[in-house]
Amino acid sequence: MEKVFEIIKIVGLGVVESPNKEFSTGLIYHNKETADQKANELWLENTTEEDRNSGWCGLHFIVKERNVM
Fold first, then answer.
1. How confident is the model at residue 12 (pLDDT cuts 50, 70, 90)?
2. Radius of gyration (C-alpha) of the chain in whole angstroms
């Protein structure tokens, strides 16, 4: 079994009762460091400085480890 790393887009709805929504970006990497770097780049490209500095940003990109055959 091989491990790959998928970038997932997390959208926070800003309401305590509502859970975050997860969406696959379709981006898959064989190297975790590369996936982490790309996730950070996507976050910076898709958020404003004001969002990032506000203490709560409703958009995140995370890396999840997946097993493939």
1. confident
2. 13
Overall pTM surpassing 0.85 (yes/no): no
Q: How far apart are CA 30 and CA 20, in angstroms?
A: 26
Tell how far CA 35 is from the center of its chain: 10
List helix spans (H) across the chain: 32-46, 49-53
Neighbours of 10 (CB within 10 A): 14
Question: Model confidence over 54-69: pLDDT tens digits?
Answer: 877 889 999 999 998 8
- CA distances to 19, 33, 57 from 11, in Å: 9, 23, 9
**Tokens read off for 40:** 């950070």
